[in-house]
Amino acid sequence: MPYSIMLDAGHGGEEPGAVYMGRQEKDATLNLVLAIGEILQNNGIDVEYTRTTDVYESPYQKAMEANEAGVDFFISIHRNSSPIPNQYMGVESLVYDLSGIKYEMAKNINAQLETVGFVNLGVQARPNLVVLRRTQMPAVLVEVGFMNSDTDNKLFDENFNDIASAIADGIMDTLNVGTTGQTQPDTELRVQVGAFRNSVYAERLLRELTEQDFPAYIDDKGQFDRVQVGRYRTLDEAATMERRLKMAGYPTVIVSIPVEGMKGLRRSINKEKG
Length: 274
Hints:
Blueprint: E1 4-9, E2 19-20, E3 23-24, H1 25-42, E4 46-49, H2 59-69, E5 73-80, E6 91-95, H3 100-116, E7 120-125, H4 130-133, E8 139-146, H5 150-158, H6 160-175, E9 187-196, H7 199-211, E10 216-219, E11 225-232, H8 235-247, E12 253-258, E13 265-267, H9 269-273
């Protein structure tokens, strides 16, 4: 199955967002979201929208809409603003926390936008934002330059199509999507439940998971022992396992791993049961 993404154009209707010299954030975000969506759809990704016209929905309504749709990712497009015109410039992406595939996607989107000419202000954790906190799937909010920066506005106007392509490419690079919308054969998806410096805690969690028949193992490459569950070719399969783990009360994050990363697996469920 192809990936599914809900694109959110920030603000709308009676809520214009940032305003500067006749520009309104709500118009810029809607035009950009529609362009990004077309690119993603042309590459085999299922796209849904929180809005395609000038209407307002609260951040909570948008989050609930994404949850009800059951999409794999939620991407919210905004433009930033500073207290003083031309005080700042650049792109910034926001995520609930700095971990998992959402963090990788945010970094990739920023990197692609940097190639268009924007200053890359990095990725920040914003756990209090409703669309990041209340969505049940990985979510990224992208601030595409400052509305009250003449430099950013010039970039936005003169490179609009390149900006839409950059954001779409950042998304697809993260998912390793080709023209079929499927994960490339050199990567796999896993559901990570914990990462520990002390292997005793990792072993304890592994035993707990295997006793509940979860296909768990420890990946001990790097400085942490990462307790992970399953190895999947599609996000749909990984998301199904993630839901099972969440229902069992475990914190989860879906991670994308090169197939060569399998060499670091120390223990699998089969060995544990055997």
